[in-house]
Amino acid sequence: MVIAVDGPAAAGKGTLARRLAADLGLPYLDTGLLYRATGRRVLDAGADPRDVVAAEAAARALAPSDVTRPDLRGPEADMAASAVAAIPAVRAALLEWQREFGRAHGAVLDGRDIGTVVFPKAPLKLFVTASAEQRAHRRWLELRGRGVTADLQAVLSELRARDAQDAGRAVAPLKPAADALTLDTTELDAEAAFQVARRLVAERLGL
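That's the Cytidylate kinase sequence above. Prediction below.
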């Protein structure tokens, strides 16, 4: 049983995927952390996240401790993650790891290409989205909650740049799978989004 949850940054897919996994008794994987950790390793080495050789080496050297680092969020980490995710060699290095995770016991995975590339035959694919303005506001509140001073318009600009980079990359661009169900959370809080998603799970999977 694999449920794919894809969508752009700050659409609420991570919160939703975690809740679905807990409700269904399935493992959960935030695949974005793999790319964030890869980007952070590249930055730590003083290299450019767009450097193919450095990025692939970082992806192949990932250790479990890398995905639990406290510095995987924020504008610098966001852009580094998006940059390394555009490199085919990095995606190839991390693809089988993600697939093995899902094959082992089933899972709810969230990311940007779960339904299109990682598990194209998943029985349920959700594409979670929201307006850029609403997503920027959520990210701004998240940063404030962590004590990070941020300008809302700057957050919106960075988010739109990330969207463009994710959607425009040649390999595994951000887009809904042809058979994905779209869930727009612009006007929904976390509880309302979960209730909609849970109904879709019941309708599609009988669970």
